[in-house]
């Protein structure tokens, strides 16, 4: 068997395995065999790159980061649907249809709350995918769509041209895990799975889109050459035979049947792995659709039934406060059990103190509860006419209910946040940040291993890292003797880090990498920094009064002092070992773009900061210079538009060395 034949065999085997795993949910190939065959295919394609094709399983994740998305004009417009909000309006839709066509049947499908896309195939190969956009013009997101495992890259039947429409979504379980990870990393949370799916599909880097584990359900043939169909049901059956994952659907012969099935979809919405925002009713006959046609906005042969938000009254039994991984205090109302949108609700979010004050929610109140976006139970209003006479306004505590540390309000929002350096509720996030590259840079101590160590009872504060024993670590899941020894060695090595990395590791509010470097160089030792007054700290360039206040409050807290004592006893360095090179770049802000040959962007940024300059991630009128390496993109263009000086690598090096 020659290379070309082996490549074709491997592609066929991997394509079949992918279909069995993701579509049929009945895999016959083990993960080990799949990974082994995929690696072999990658090796062969690297040897013979001219044999790489767009439908190869190796092309699911890859490609260069895009500068932006190009526009795509849809061959067939991706129309939106007319909404109906009651069974009466649905019946009126059915009556209008029956005035135009006889003996009509309908297909009823759940309306997936995601992002609509068109997938184009030529001779059975996936060639392009685009977002709906305004229905006529969308964005080319082909590379990101390739990362979705339920989109076949090659179809069993090679029709000359086929365009199908589907809805990209993020499964509920993936959404919750993504938000957990974002909270752990201090990133803003996605509001709902639809926003998460849309944001993921529009990532300029396909690798990020692949990590989000998006899915798709296909629900329509937009255009086809080489085959004819008479009903919508036939098209769905054909799409299924071509290895697409097809929307769940039911054929109904009357509006009463449609209404009954819509009710069933609504009652079972919690059982779907995806969010829905309604149900879709479509005329089944394609000939009847031609007769009915479309208005300027909608097809006359379909309607989208939108479920009304269900509201019910309940009593607030208690208000409890949870402390999240980022230290934010989140109040929650415990309510008498009430059935909403297919599930029993026993609590509802109260968001923050501002929300509680605005709604004037009190323990003992009778409240109206609904599911916001069909996901999160929330209190809509208080029925004050039913309020007991002995209720009192509720206020969040001024100390953390978990560790007792003081609570502070975010300057830029309504969140209250625990300041405890050793707060158990924040332990996972604290440790992940403590070990991160820009902090103590402990190799091998990612979120999974940190969680493993916490669950085993080996870590209760960041200081406990330095008393870990290799023998104890080796007993944990996914850890062996060698891995444990490597981890202990990495922890030991981190003791020698500069003071600036330790400061950054503490996660003090508004003290990130840059501020930590400034403070370490200014004060030299942890002892001197801890003894500094607010006025002395605020006088340091780039620090300011709020950061100074955060620093003095942190050093004054008993938990912080205990952590410092633990680290000092363990031999962790608390002195600055970086001597400032000067301040010749003081007051200048640089933006780095493209690839530099002499050093990495991080190294270039450190050189700038060592000379007193600042590094920014975006170009603005405040930018002093843009340093442009190879393949510089949109930042370079913006600099030229704003008439900001641009330095190539040679000029940049000269500036540093002058």
Quick description:
The protein is of the alpha+beta class.
On the 0 to 100 scale, the average pLDDT is 89
Adjacency order of strands in the biggest sheet: 2-11-10-3-9
Give the biggest sheet: 5 strands, mixed
Termini separation (Å)? 62 Å
Overall CATH architecture of the largest domain: 2-Layer Sandwich
Counting helices, strands and paired strands, the structural category is alpha+beta
Stretches where pLDDT falls below 50 for ≥5 residues? none
CATH superfamily of the largest domain: DNA ligase/mRNA capping enzyme
CATH class of the largest domain: Alpha Beta
Helix content estimate: 25-40%
CATH level 3 topology of the largest domain: D-amino Acid Aminotransferase, Chain A, domain 1
| General shape | globular
Beta-strand fraction estimate: 15-25%
| Count of alpha/pi helices | 24
The tally of domains stands at 5
Computed over alpha carbons, the radius of gyration is 30 Å
Q: What is the number of E strands?
A: 22
SSE order and pairing:
Blueprint: H1 3-22, H2 31-47, E1 71-73, E2 82-84, H3 87-100, E3 106-112, E4 115-122, E5 125-131, E6 137-139, H4 142-146, E7 161-169, H5 172-184, H6 193-201, H7 206-211, E8 215-225, H8 232-241, E9 250-252, H9 255-267, E10 276-283, H10 286-292, E11 302-305, E12 311-323, E13 329-340, E14 343-349, H11 353-359, E15 366-372, E16 376-382, E17 407-409, E18 416-418, H12 427-435, H13 447-455, H14 470-474, H15 481-494, H16 499-505, H17 513-523, H18 526-531, H19 534-538, H20 544-556, H21 558-570, E19 589-593, H22 601-610, E20 614-616, E21 625-628, H23 634-641, E22 646-647, H24 649-657
Parallel strand pairs: 2-11, 19-20, 19-21, 21-22
Antiparallel strand pairs: 1-6, 3-9, 3-10, 4-5, 4-7, 7-8, 10-11, 12-13, 12-15, 13-14, 15-16, 17-18
């Amino acid at each position: 068997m020659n290379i070309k034949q082996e490549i074709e065999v491997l592609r066929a085997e991997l394509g079949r395995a992918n279909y069995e795993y993701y579509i049929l949910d009945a895999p016959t190939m083990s993960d080990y065999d799949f990974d082994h065959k995929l690696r072999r295919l990658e090796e062969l394609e690297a040897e013979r790159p001219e044999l790489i094709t767009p439908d190869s399983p190796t092309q699911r994740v890859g490609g260069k980061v895009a500068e932006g998305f190009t526009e795509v004009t849809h061959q067939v417009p991706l129309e939106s649907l007319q909404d109906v909000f009651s069974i009466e309006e649905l019946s009126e839709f059915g009556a209008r249809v029956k005035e135009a066509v006889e003996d009509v049947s309908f297909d009823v499908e759940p309306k997936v709350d995601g992002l609509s896309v068109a997938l184009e195939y030529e001779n059975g190969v996936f060639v392009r995918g685009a977002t709906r956009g305004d229905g006529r013009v969308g964005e080319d997101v082909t590379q990101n769509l390739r990362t979705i495992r339920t989109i076949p890259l090659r179809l069993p039947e090679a029709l000359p041209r086929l365009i199908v429409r589907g809805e990209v979504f993020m499964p509920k379980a993936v959404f919750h895990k993504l938000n957990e990870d974002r909270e752990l990393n201090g990133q803003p949370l996605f509001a709902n799975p639809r926003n998460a799916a849309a944001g993921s599909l529009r990532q300029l880097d396909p690798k990020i889109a692949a990590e989000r584990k998006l899915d798709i359900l296909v629900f329509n043939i937009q255009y086809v050459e080489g085959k004819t169909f008479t009903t919508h049901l036939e098209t769905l059956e054909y799409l299924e035979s071509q290895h697409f994952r097809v929307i769940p659907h039911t054929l109904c012969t009357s509006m009463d049947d449609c209404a009954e099935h819509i009710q069933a979809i609504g009652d079972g919405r919690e059982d779907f792995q995806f969010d829905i925002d309604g149900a879709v009713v479509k005329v089944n006959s394609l000939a009847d659709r031609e007769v009915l046609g479309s208005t300027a906005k909608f097809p006359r042969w379909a309607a989208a039934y939108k479920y009304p938000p269900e509201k019910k009254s309940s009593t607030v039994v208690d208000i409890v406060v949870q402390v999240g991984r980022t230290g934010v205090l989140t109040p929650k109302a415990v309510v008498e059990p009430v059935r909403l949108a297919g599930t029993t609700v026993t609590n509802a979010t109260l968001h923050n103190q501002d929300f509680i004050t605005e709604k004037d929610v009190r323990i003992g109140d009778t409240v109206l509860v609904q599911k916001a976006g069909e996901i999160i139970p929330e209190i809509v209003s208080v029925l004050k006419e039913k309020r007991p006479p002995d209720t009192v306004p509720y206020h969040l505590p001024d100390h953390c209910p978990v560790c007792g540390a003081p609570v502070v309000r975010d300057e830029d929002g309504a969140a209250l946040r625990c300041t405890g350096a050793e707060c158990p509720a924040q332990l996972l996030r604290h440790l992940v940040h403590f070990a991160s590259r820009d902090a103590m840079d402990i190799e091998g101590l990612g979120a999974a291993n940190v969680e493993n160590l916490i669950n085993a009872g080996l870590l209760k504060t960041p200081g406990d890292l330095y008393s870990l024993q290799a023998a104890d670590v080796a007993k944990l899941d996914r850890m062996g003797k060698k891995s444990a020894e490597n981890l202990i060695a990495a922890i030991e090595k981190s003791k020698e880090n500069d003071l600036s990395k330790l400061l950054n590791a503490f996660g003090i509010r508004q003290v990130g990498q840059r501020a930590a470097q400034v403070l370490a160089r200014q004060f030299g030792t942890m002892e001197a920094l801890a003894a500094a007054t607010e006025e002395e700290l605020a006088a340091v360039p780039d620090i300011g009064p709020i950061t100074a206040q955060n620093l003095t409050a942190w050093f004054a807290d008993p938990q912080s002092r205990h952590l410092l004592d633990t680290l000092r006893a363990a031999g962790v360095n608390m002195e600055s070992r970086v001597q400032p090179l000067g301040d010749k770049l003081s007051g200048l802000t640089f933006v780095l773009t493209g690839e530099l040959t002499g050093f990495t962007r991080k190294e270039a940024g450190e050189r700038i900061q060592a000379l007193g300059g600042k590094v920014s991630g975006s170009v603005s009128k405040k930018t002093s210079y843009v340093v442009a390496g190879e393949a510089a993109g949109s930042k370079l263009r913006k600099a030229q538009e704003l008439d900001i000086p641009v330095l190539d690598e040679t000029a940049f090096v000269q500036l540093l060395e002058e």
